[in-house]
Structures are given as C-alpha cells and as structure tokens.
Amino acid sequence: MKHKFFLLCIFTINIISAEIIFTADEFKSRRMKLAKELESNAIAIFQGAPSETGYVKFRQYNEFYYLTGIETPHAYMIIKGDSGETTLYLPHKNERRERSEGPLLSAEDVETVKAMTGVDHVFATTMMGEHLWRMRMRTKPIVYLYQSPPERHAESRDLLLRHEGDIQNDPWDQTQPRYKDFNQNMSAHMAGSEIRDLTKILDQLRLIKSNAEIEVIKKATVLSCLALMEAMRSTKPGIYEYELDGMAKYIYHINGAQGDAYYSLIANGSNAYMPHYHEKKDKLRDGDLMLMDYSPDFQYYMSDITRMIPVNGKFSEEQSQLYGFYVACYRAILDKIRPFIEPVKVRKEAADKMKQILSIAKFNQAHHRKAAENFVESYARSSKRQYASLGHGVGMATHDVGDHSKMLLPGMVFTIEPALRVPEENIYIRLEDLIIITETGAEVVSDFVPMDMRGIEKLMREKGMLDRYKSLTEKDYKKYLK
C-alpha cells in the first residue's frame, strides 16, 4: 500500500497525458453545421481573444477555439452562410517575439493553418476590413455577430453577465466589454446590413457533444476524480483547505491540464453552507464534514465533480443518518436518467422514490428529519414546473451553454447537484457527478469515486499524498532562512 500514490501518478500519466488534437474535419464539420443555420446571403463574423495582459499562457475564447482550434491572439474569422466557406485572419509573423516565446501561427503560415483547421482562406488581419467593405458594396449580407460575453479562463456565461452587471452598477467605471465594442464597430462598418445574434445558434451546436469532445470531457473527469480520491486519502484534522487545492493542482498539471475549470470549492464544516465558498483558508476540524468541488480545464474542456468527506475519516451516527438519506435520494435521481425523456419527468419519478426513502429513514434529531422533508418537498415541487433541468451543462464551460430543460438527448453532458440544508446547524450536503446521455442510457463517468460511506471511509484509511509531502511549518522556514 505504501507505493499507492506513486502507482496512481504513473497510471494517470500513461492514460491522460497523450495529446488530443481535434482534426480539421471536426472543426470544418462544426462550421458547416453553423453555416447551414444561416441564410445563403449571410455571413458570421467572429473575434478571437486578445493577447494576455500578464505572465499568463494565452487561452483562446471558447467560441473561437470550438470553430477553429486556433490559439493565436487577435485572430478573426468570417463564415459564409449555407456554403460554410471560411476565411481566417491572423496577425503577421512577429519574429522578435517568436525568438523570445516560441513559434506562433500567423498570416504567413497559410498551408499549415489550412491543414490544421480546414479553412478555405488565410489572410492578414489588416485585410478583413477591405474584404468586408467589398461584401457590403456587392450584396449587403445579413451579418451575424456573437452578442454574448465570450468565455475564456475559468469563465461561464452566468458569471460573465454578473461581472457586466457589477460594472454597470458602478458609477465610476465606464468600461465596456471588448465584444460589445467589436459588435458596435462591425455594425458601423457594415452599415445597411441587418445585424443578428449568433448566440442561440452556437449554443445549440455546443449542446450536443461530438464523440471527440466526449473523449476529452471524460479525461478531464478522470483527473477531477483522481484528485477527489487523493483528497479522501489526504484529509485529516489540522490541515488547511488550501493544501487540498495544491494537491489537486499537482494531479491536474502533471497530466497536461491548462488550468482550473473554476476556482476550487474546498469548504470545511459550515463554510460549505455557502455553495461557492472559495477562500480555502480554514483549518479542517475533527468531527466536521468537508465538501470538495474541483475540476481542471483540460484541452479547453471541463468537468465538475463534488464529494463530501468526514474530516476524521469516520461518519458520526447523525452524519450517517443525514448523508445516508441524501445518497439514497441522489441515487434515485441517477437511476431515472435516460435518453428521450423530459427532465421534469425524471424529477417526478425520482421525487416519488424519495418519498419512499423518507418514509423509512431514521433521524435522531427532529430538525434533521425536517431538513429531509424539506429536501424531498422542494424536489417534488420542481417536477411540477413546465421546464426544469436536472442540473447544468458541462463542456467548454463549467456551466455550459445550451438548453438542457426540454429533452435529454444523446450527446448531452451535464451534472446533477441537489443540496440538502440543515439551517439550524449550517450543515450543507451536496454531491455532483458528470453524466453523458447515450443512445441507450446514461453514463455516469465519475461513478468510480466512492460516494457510499463505507467506500469513503475505506479510502480515507489509506496513506495520502499530503501524508508524505507536508506543508512547511514556521520551524521549517526558520531552518531554511538562517
């Protein structure tokens, strides 16, 4: 057993580290699907991400990468409606910068870019204005622009829109998002053309994942799961939340992750009652439950997995009653998920099963039973809404785009994360798993991470990474700083 972590690292390196490259045909297929949603006299114009402002590795906008795979800053693209004819615009080669930072695809790499992306034409960024002017003079095409905030580092649309709202509510900040400036410039440049929004079209395309996308999402999920399992081994009273964050990052990065899917939610005790608590400063206390919700950004695709862990390695009697009830209800939801069914029907079937589970559940504390009743009643109420998704989509964003509330279709990827609250004690219990809808069922990719109490307790008895690599104490610092 003493070599378990070493073996785990070898396993993850062998399975995960091989680079995954989407083919030119994959990118072309995505662009063609988009083009078929446009009129024959329409064009879609896309703006790529700008260069970074600090010492951070460049990351392309999700939307631009989804259609091209290009990781060059300040790139642009025009896709013609119906035909899908695509022109990519890139900056000129900057040899001085390349001598310092390495090669970067540019307007001079025409054949390489075509082979990689399947685009029809490659020009310098400076040519796009002239090309658009000629289109405007000839046909006044309908112009589609992406009119939602583009996603980048650990970003989802919900938080991007919140960020915009915060700026609008600040009377001293007149900042306008870059994409809005671009859309205004394009509207002025293409005066006389009708301007339409691409958001719904692209959201619908991203809703259903290709086989290639699913393979990458599965690998991101494996990394997330291995980090959670290592957290179960390493969690002990007295360590800090941030130590588990660092441990997970190690597993992610030695296997090729490019960053975090979202800031880690590692919350001890009552911190978990704040679902997006992310300070990671508290010391883990004996007798508490700890929530860990964390995943990597792996080749532009995310995962989102959560587990609850007893800090001392053993669920107490009352924790067992609450957590055991919750897990039974959670499994009831998973068991009802299948293709070609409306999510509200899944909720109704699961709620009926939850009522049966509640009827035989035992609780020492009256307020624990009340919390369980509230949990079941709330879930049952949600099944009466016309549209209610089971959770949220996962893909290029942790809270991915697309409507998951109408029908579960093959290729959809999402998580469920129902939460049980005990307000009298600030207790919060939540699990989360990644689910892929197939033609014949639902694959729970993360199901190999223990969620049952015996499985968690068994794993916590094993030696963990943080048992071997402890954080520095004040004494350690003094030893090195003599």
Please tell me about this protein's structure.
- This protein has a 6-stranded mixed beta sheet, sandwiched between helices.
- The protein is α+β, with helices and mostly antiparallel strands and 482 residues long.
- It has 2 domains: 37-207, 3-Layer(aba) Sandwich (Creatine Amidinohydrolase, Chain A, domain 1), CATH 3.40.350; 211-468, Creatine Amidinohydrolase, CATH 3.90.230.
- It contains 17 helices and 17 strands.
- A hairpin with a 5-residue loop joins strand 2 and strand 3.
- It is 42% helix and 14% strand.
Largest sheet: 6 strands, mixed
**What would the CATH topology of the largest domain be?**
Creatine Amidinohydrolase
Total beta strand runs:
17
The CATH architecture of the largest domain would be Alpha-Beta Complex
Query: Please, what is the CATH homologous superfamily of the largest domain?
Result: Creatinase/methionine aminopeptidase superfamily
The overall pLDDT average reads 94
Relative strand content: 5-15%
Determine the structural class based on helices, strands and strand pairing.
alpha+beta
Overall domain count: 2
Number of helices: 17
What are the key terms here?
Creatine Amidinohydrolase, Chain A, domain 1; 17 helices; globular; 482 residues; alpha+beta; 6-stranded mixed sheet; 17 strands
Write the layout of secondary structure elements.
Blueprint: H1 4-16, H2 24-36, E1 42-47, H3 62-68, E2 76-80, E3 86-90, H4 95-101, H5 110-117, E4 121-124, H6 128-138, E5 142-145, H7 157-168, H8 178-189, E6 195-197, H9 199-207, H10 211-234, H11 241-254, E7 259-260, E8 265-268, E9 289-293, E10 296-297, E11 306-310, H12 317-336, H13 343-360, H14 366-382, E12 391-393, E13 413-416, E14 419-422, E15 427-430, E16 433-437, E17 442-444, H15 453-460, H16 465-468, H17 474-480
Parallel strand pairs: 1-5, 3-4, 5-6
Antiparallel strand pairs: 1-2, 2-3, 7-10, 8-9, 9-11, 12-13, 13-16, 14-15, 16-17
Helix pairs in contact: 1-10, 2-5, 10-11, 10-15, 12-13, 12-14, 13-14
